[in-house]
Amino acid sequence: MFKLLRRVLVLAVFLFAVYKVYHIHQDVKQVMTYQPMVREILNERDTPANEELVLAMIYTETKGKEGDVMQSSESASGTTNTINDNVTSIRQGIQTLTDNLYLAQEKGVDVWTAVQAYNFGPAYIDFIAQNGKENTLALAKRYSRETVAPILGNITGKTYTYINPISIFHGAELYENGGNYYYSRQVRFNLYIMKFFNFF
């Protein structure tokens, strides 16, 4: 009886893993449909942003399944859900990322600070410039708790459960109204996912 239960459990885990791999592969294929558009918009401007990074950000933001594929409405208008077409979203997202990358270069901080600032806003770049010049999870978490969350009303440090492949090793939570302090690490992880599944 125990052996049968173990076999059923192993089979269930295997089938779940197969399903997840298939699902990820479909998401990567969906994001890659934006590759020509991303390439065209990148070619319109002088930018240190690159195609792989932008596609990984699309994967992180929406898996390419929403009108505002780069969730760039807030950087354009100050409010969410004001962009509903992919071209405008990608153009605005690339502009925001470009501005962050140039500011990061000017302030002498690493590229991943600029990527994290896509989620937190450009003031994060100044924060990192004054605190070691390198984006770390500890600094991102501190900025989320002490700066972003209180500005948006969370002055008590209230958290909520947030589970993804990065967060499960670091507490699996975020601060309410505090942005996503795992963001740059998720983008980096998703870069590898995109590269791996793009071979198939």
Automatic annotation (TrEMBL):
<dbReference type="Pfam" id="PF13702">
    <property type="entry name" value="Lysozyme_like"/>
</dbReference>
<protein>
    <recommendedName>
        <fullName>Pneumococcal vaccine antigen A</fullName>
    </recommendedName>
</protein>
<dbReference type="InterPro" id="IPR047194">
    <property type="entry name" value="CwlT-like_lysozyme"/>
</dbReference>
<feature type="domain" description="CwlT-like lysozyme">
    <location>
        <begin position="29"/>
        <end position="190"/>
    </location>
</feature>
<dbReference type="GO" id="GO:0009986">
    <property type="term" value="C:cell surface"/>
</dbReference>
<dbReference type="GO" id="GO:0016052">
    <property type="term" value="P:carbohydrate catabolic process"/>
</dbReference>
<dbReference type="InterPro" id="IPR023346">
    <property type="entry name" value="Lysozyme-like_dom_sf"/>
</dbReference>
